[in-house]
Design goal:
The chain is an alpha/beta fold. Helix content is about 40%, strand content about 20%.
Length: about 220
Amino acid sequence: MYNKSDIELKVAEFLLQIKAIKLQPNNPFTWASGWKSPIYCDNRITLSHPAVRTYIRQKLAQLIQEEYGAVDVIAGVATAGIPQGVLVAQELGLPFIYVRSKAKEHGTGSLIEGEIIEGQRVVVIEDLISTGKSSLQAVEALRAAGLSVAGLVAIFTYGFDQADQNFADAKCRYSTLSNYPTLISYAAEHGFIAQNEINLLNKWRETPATWGKDIAIDAE
């Protein structure tokens, strides 16, 4: 049985404990996009922790079965979705492929690596959803290759409205093991953040592109 709320909390706990997610509302990070952010997420760290890695592999596999039913192949999104996708494909006993961020500039010029068969039903694996742009580029590449994309699953989402809209526009379902509101609730309850930081953290998710413009301290 897939207990969604328990899994959301457990994954949030793991990500905070192993520092795959760091929260610094008073000393924000700067993303490549230029956005200021009180959170930094690197789910590749989960691969270094066998118990966490196993839990995430099992729960992603269960999530796929619960939400999307039978599928023919698992596809990872380069680069962070590749190892997670391999683990899930192994758990489900399914073939694995992955989608490059851009086609190779040599050899076959492939954008999709691995054996594909037109009409196969595929679920895409990501580690993290922010705006969903890179994930949906992979979805479109798979569709263009003749595959049927059942949906996408990821470990964590920031829960931006922009992501929901982008996935809706692309007519692609997506599901995640945990999410930003659950994480902040768990972090506050278990002392990972102070109570007076919660408002800053909540405001960021509402307006991530403009949040922190008036904060003088740059990210390290």
